[in-house]
Specification:
The radius of gyration is 26 Å and the shape is globular. By secondary structure, the protein is α+β, with helices and mostly antiparallel strands. Helix 7 runs antiparallel to helix 8. The strands form 4 sheets. The protein has an 8-stranded antiparallel beta sheet, with helices on one face. A 5-stranded antiparallel beta sheet has the order 8-9-13-14-16, covered by helices on one side. The model has no long low-confidence stretch (mean pLDDT 94). The chain has 3 domains: 145 residues, no CATH class; 216 residues, no CATH class; 258 residues, no CATH class. The chain is built from 21 helices and 19 strands.
């Protein structure tokens, strides 16, 4: 018998012993109420997941009907779906109300973390499954003591567990995001009968009506339509290498991210990428506290069973984060990428299919939810900075590109199919036409010292954005003529502004950023850095400040303006107006429907030294700002690991003008219309009913 077989047999034995004990907990009264109810319900959940794991292991799951797998999926997520969440221990407010504040936060975290066993069962990851079952039993053992030391020992046990298994958990996440041989999702996509929608449930994610209706709709499209969608997506990725003057031939892997339901398109895209010499890396969005980045879904995923649940647990790492653990995570990440450095260097970048159409979400700010204190905020900022620098070295970030494309999902409303068709049209507009029009805008902007932006109506925006001074206007340009390559659809010119001299107020009455709605968002810039911020999501101004800092500034004290752009896709803008879906358009499309401003890193983050040229042959020299230049002297201070675009729609614009060095004002947009010669045909879309 091999060593591996001996280890496997040992883990299987440990797993069996743990489950035997957990089945007993469902019926025993060793713990007093209200803790007894908590542990019995959680034990019952773990038994249900064990039964699922056994069905997958022995092949019985494959024989279930669509209705049976759907019913099972609902059972696994039922306690956090919609109103059920109000009475779930996963809800920190309910947990604290039932168990008291001393136990509530901690045990709500444990309840949520143990929901990860669903994924362990589907992926048959028995070792991870086993150690989490053993953690549950350890915490239950402390609860049986019924004395004042129980809570302290529970906290210590969780911290010790995370410290002991940090290297394993970080390694597993690094492996699945780097190694194409981690093929769980790829196997589902390539081997399933996609006409039999039971395949949707093989992932283990929550499957809503949206995924089912999306898959049904995608299946109704012709092979030619699917091929066209895949070609638009993958050709954008390859064009990104061409535009960036990068060598795709040096790479062998590409990361595909998508929402469940688009498998037929993804399957075709995988075949396209293979023709480019690229194997797909397809990993799910993180679901354990140690690997999550707040509430964001980075990787493939289904619809959230409850967005408030995701938001409540976005900072669960705060339960065990301290400076020693931060060092442990960095060391674990470095050890993992060192083991996989050859694979990492072959990485070509991410290729995303994003979706839009979900209802706008304004979260409750619950005092019972775990939050990071100021020390922990700094630790997480430091962690992301250190990991980003590791990634720059091992993943050769200056050699990668990306592409992003968006499609609506049925939640957009009764016009879903019409909106989908219109989105396909928007995604395939004439590049040559936009190249010509956008060059007219760039030629004027390159004469400017500043760009002046004024809002109108309810929009109070009043900004002056300072541009990089050009040494040779015949060979250099500030703005990239952005066509349908890395960012699909076509339609913007963008630059990295100078920070010094950039000043004023950016105001948006309503904007949807990173799956969260912001009402009356105001950002004040002084020398290109945010000096003040506010919104009106809550009646309490402190909550508003905290909401922005946590979710828009990512716990930085301030962020610089990393990008200024003028969107030119009036067709996309009118799609939003026609179907009354403008607030629900993804930033990928929304940023093309007016001027936008990104806070955080520049568009050329980690690739500033790679020369980039426009179609007219001019080099885009505005790839840095005063902060990103610190990479040469103090790299820890050069990056913020975020880049969030904030768009002003055309109907909120009074003026966008280039202001030259002699004070001449050259209007580009006036009163929501393009007025610059060479751009006026963009206004034709405004008149289409």
């Amino acid at each position: 018998m091999s060593i591996w077989q001996e280890e496997k047999d040992e883990v299987i034995e440990r797993y069996g012993l743990a489950m035997d004990r957990i089945r007993e907990i469902e019926k025993e009264d060793a713990v007093k109420e209200p803790l007894r109810d908590y542990f019995q319900k959680l034990a019952g959940f773990l038994v249900m997941v064990d039964n699922l794991a056994a069905m997958i292991r022995d092949g019985a799951y494959e024989k279930l009907s669509f209705e049976e797998v759907k019913s099972l999926n609902i059972s696994l997520y039922n306690d956090i779906i919609e109103d059920n969440y109000e009475l779930s221990y996963a809800n920190p407010s309910y947990a604290c109300g039932r168990l008291g504040k001393r136990y509530g936060k901690l045990l709500s975290f444990l309840y949520t973390e143990l929901r990860g066993t669903i994924i362990f069962a589907y992926e048959q990851h028995i070792y991870l499954h086993t150690i989490y079952l053993e953690l549950f039993l350890q915490i239950y053992g402390f609860a049986c003591w019924e004395d004042e030391f129980a809570l302290k020992d529970m906290k210590r046990a969780i911290k010790d567990f995370m410290h002991d298994y940090c290297e394993l958990l970080v390694y597993e996440r690094t492996r699945e995001t780097t190694d194409p041989n981690c093929s769980f999702a790829k196997d589902i996509i390539m081997e399933s009968d996609l006409n039999n929608l039971t395949y949707l449930y093989k992932y283990g994610d929550y499957i809503s009506d949206s995924e089912i209706r999306t898959a049904e709709f995608i299946n109704s499209l012709s092979d030619e339509e699917i091929q066209s969608m895949a070609d638009t997506y993958t050709s954008g990725f390859s064009r990104g290498f061409e535009v960036g003057n990068l060598d795709l031939g040096k790479k062998s892997t590409v990361n595909i991210r998508y929402q469940i339901g688009f498998e037929r398109v993804v399957r075709r895209a995988i075949l396209n990428f293979k023709e480019l010499g690229l194997e797909p890396i397809i990993y799910r969005a993180a679901y354990l506290a140690i690997n999550k980045r707040q509430h964001l879904k980075i990787g493939y995923h289904g619809s959230s069973p409850n967005k408030q649940y995701d938001y409540d647990h976005r900072f669960d790492i705060g339960i065990f984060l301290d400076s020693a653990f931060k060092r442990r995570m960095v060391e674990a990440r470095k050890a993992a990428v060192e083991k996989m450095k050859n694979l990492a260097s072959q990485y070509a970048g991410p290729s995303l299919i994003e979706v839009f159409g979900e209802e706008l979400f304004s979260p409750l700010d619950k005092p019972e939810a775990i939050k990071l204190n100021k020390t922990q905020q700094k630790l997480m900022t430091q962690y992301y900075n250190e990991v980003r620098l590791l990634d720059k070295e091992y993943y050769k970030m200056d050699e990668i590109s990306f592409t992003i494309i968006s499609y609506p999902i049925p939640e957009i409303g009764q016009d879903f199919e019409a909106i989908f068709a219109e989105t396909v049209k928007v995604n395939t507009l004439d590049n040559d036409k936009y190249q010509r029009i956008q060059q007219s805008i760039i030629d004027v902007l390159d004469k400017g010292e500043y760009v002046k932006i004024l809002g109108k109506g309810k929009n109070k925006t009043d900004l002056m954005v300072r541009l990089y001074p050009l040494a040779d206007g015949d060979k250099e340009t500030n703005f990239e003529n952005c066509l349908a390559d890395v960012n699909i659809p076509v339609g913007e010119v963008f630059t990295s502004p100078c920070l010094e001299g950039t000043r004023g107020l950016l105001h948006v009455p309503l904007v949807y950023l990173n799956d969260l709605a912001y009402h009356e968002l105001e950002l004040t810039f002084t020398d290109g850095r945010i000096s003040d911020y506010s919104c009106k999501n809550y009646d309490d101004e402190d909550k508003n400040k905290s909401f922005i800092k946590e979710n828009l500034l990512y716990n930085h004290e301030s962020l610089p303006i990393g990008e200024f752009a003028i969107g030119t896709n009036t067709t996309a803008y009118m799609m939003g107006k026609k179907f009354d879906i403008a607030p629900r358009l993804p930033i990928l499309i929304a940023e093309k429907t007016g001027p936008h401003f990104a806070i955080g890193d520049t568009c050329y983050s980690m690739r500033e030294d790679v020369k980039v040229y426009n179609p007219d042959g001019k080099e885009i020299v505005a790839r840095d700002n005063e902060i990103s230049l610190l990479r040469k002297t103090n790299p820890d201070k050069a990056y913020f690991n975020c880049h969030t675009d904030i768009t002003l729609p055309y109907d909120e614009i009074k003026e966008i003008s280039a202001v030259t060095y002699d004070g001449t004002v050259i209007p580009i947009i006036k009163d929501s219309r393009f007025v610059l010669e060479g751009t006026k045909e963009l206004n034709e879309a405004f008149d289409v009913v």
